[in-house]
Amino acid sequence: MKTSIVILTHNKLDYTKQCIESIRQYTRSGTYEIIVVDNHSTDGTVEWLKKQADTRTIFNDENVGFPKGCNQGIQIATGENILLLNNDVVVTKHWLDHLLACLYSADDIGAVGPVTNSAAYYSTIPVSYTSIDEMHVFASQHNVLDPNKWEERLKLIGFCMLIKKEAIDKVGLLDERFTPGNFEDDDYSVRLRQAGYRLMLCKDTFIHHYGSVSWKDDGSGYSKLLRDNQKKFEEKWNVDVEAYNIEREMIDRIEVDRQSHVSVLHIGCGAGATLLKIKHEYPYATLYGIEQNAFAMKEAQRYAYVANDLKDDKIKNQMFDLILYSDRAFELNDHFLRFVVDHLKPNGQFFAHVQNAGHFRVIEELIAGRNPFARTRLYSLGQLDDLFKRYPLSISVTGLMLSETDNQHRFVNHLKVLYGEAVQSLLMPQSFVVRAYKQNENMRKLIEAFVSKEDCHQVLEKLNHFPITGVIDMIKKMDEATKLLNELAIENFARGNHEHVLPYLQAAFELCQDDTDTLYNLAFVLNSYGEKELANRYLSFIRQPDDEVKKLFEEINEHSLKKAQELTFLLRRLEFDVDIDETKQALVEKIACGEIDEPLIKEIIDTSMIHKVKVLQAIAIACFEQGLHEHVLPYLQLAYEQEPTNVDTLYNLGYVLITYGEHALAETFLQKIQQPDEQVLQLLKIARGEF
Fold it and tell me: How do residues 472-514 score in pLDDT, each as one tens digit?
């Protein structure tokens, strides 16, 4: 089976070289052909491509754009599969084999795509590499074939899209109305699904994507193109692009056992992207939706039961574990919340994602004479509080931030001067995620039973079956909430229910940050979990420590104090030349195994040593002699900072830097020696290359 890899180029030769060379290196020979369509490059790309014997090439006399260029490549392809690949991509080990495995795992899969470091629509994963070599190491570890990591999606991103040729024959070529590019991949995803195909994101396959290098030179033009092509997409399909949003902001806050049989209703579900994501993460979920756009509703009905109104009989007669709200048709008002309360099961959760009426950009628009309320519904934090408190729902609200420009930062600061620091929490969130739990009478009775000490063990066991955030939300509205949260944490800790301990203590800390009992309990628990540094931090907040607090501090720091005492002893032996060889060896062994680190050594030298430079030099020399080269220059640099004219330090820096091949830097330090002796002069000659 052969795959035709279609690549478009328009200048950016360095990227094209990396892309094609990576294909040659990481794709099995004989399984592919490379087709390059060049859109009138002028940077040497044409000349380089003409020398590549293993590529088929089309040279356009003008830039015909991405959709038409891809179509040209598709039309001359001879493979059973077509892979549309950006030229700013570097492919990786097993990439194509894994994509093909998914593509042919079912007859109704029409196209697949990989994950990457830079792309839209939640197709990125966190990465930590800083070079292409490190990237390939990362990818080789990541790219392990695993069908459990294949996820159905409504859209695939065109930077790397593998499509069955039979699907292209059925669906047709890319729509060239989206020339020069953008939204042609959204459009093709819709068309594939309209033809009965599924689309899969292969999370077991990673490739590197530099990201829109062809557009980076024209930021404003790119923004306009996006707006224009978005409008074309929406007019073609009579649906807005937001209908395809995946509401990760809500999904990430769901607290439900992933193997449970939950019933989920998404009001304003659009084309069903969020429901599809929930189905992937909660495979036994039963999905329902409400959507009023006819096209989006038809899209979502492939995955869920979707009606166009809350009055639908099947919806009306159902109770739900989860209800999600996206602001597409229905207003978040009393009538709506009455429906939510009536249709949430006990312990049911409700989530809403709404725009913030108090966001600084909304205020900017009002000042500029525009009406932001005409485009979308906006809700203030106070409005949400007033609305929800009328119903038996315990709520928490999370603000979602956007980055701000320097001018916007100054604007926010001006408002803070006028209205106080507290206004920042109202101005900064662009939107809010509201999470609400239906207040459960059984939960309330269990909390009251715990307070009255009625069979604590059995009560606690039952209470721990409820979502902990729901329990906390209910307790926060009760008298002596901080005390009760501490008691629940202590009782759970005593019974080994450790997953319930820190959430209660953290909630108590948020309610009252100077409560001595909370601070002590946090320190005690964190110390038992091995988090000594964090435990110390909470203890330091206690303003008037009693004997019990002091005892805990000594217990937490016993090992650290002992380690500091041992290190002080060794450093003083170095300082006064006592058993110097034995002392150096002991010190180097502790540094090598990570038992002591630079900050601790520096702290003890600063506070306890008289001859600081001498000790620092001795440590550096000992590390150099024992081959711990990563530690040598840091200690010499500290010695230099202490006394920049010290001849021994300057000589040692010069010697070490020459050894490491840094001749120019070595010469810089050696030249600072005002009265150089013969040894210094010889080193200078070496540094200058005179030997």
Answer: 888 887 888 999 999 999 999 998 899 999 999 999 999 999 8
Is 222 part of a structural domain of the chain?
yes
CATH code assigned at 13: 3.90.550.10
Terminal CA-CA length for the chain: 63
**pLDDT band at 220; cut points 50, 70, 90:** low
| 551 domain-assigned | no
Distance CA 535, CA 553 (A): 9
Together in a domain, 40 and 117? yes
Same domain for 490 and 402?
A: no
Q: Are residues 92 and 210 in the same domain?
A: yes
Q: Is the pLDDT of residue 390 over 50?
A: yes
The predicted-structure confidence for 658-672, as pLDDT tens digits, reads as follows 999 899 998 999 999
* Residue 549 three-state SS: helix
Amino acid at 32: Y
In Å, how far are 24, 187, 449, 537, 539 from 543, measured between CA atoms? 66, 62, 34, 12, 9
- Tens of pLDDT, residue by residue over 550-574, are 888 888 777 666 777 788 888 888 8
Residue ending a domain, among 382, 404, 438, is 438
Tell me if 122 is assigned to some domain: yes
Average pLDDT over residues 300-322: 94
Q: How many CB atoms lie within 10 A of CB 681?
A: 11
Domain count, the chain: 4
Whole-Å CA distances, 209 to 90, 212, 639:
6, 9, 44
b/e per residue 262-293 (b: at least 16 CB within 10 A): bbbbbbbbbbbbbbbbbbeebeebbbbbbbeb
Are 433 and 398 a contacting pair, CB within 8 Å?
Answer: yes
Phi, psi of 606 (to 5 degrees): -65, -35
SS3 content of the chain, % helix, strand, coil (to 5): 50, 15, 30
- pTM, two decimal places: 0.66
Question: Is residue 552 assigned to a domain?
Answer: no
pLDDT at position 599 over 50? yes
Range of the domain at 450: 441-544
User: How far apart (Å, rounded) are the C-alpha atoms in residues 318 and 340?
Assistant: 11
Q: Which amino acid is present at 389? A: K
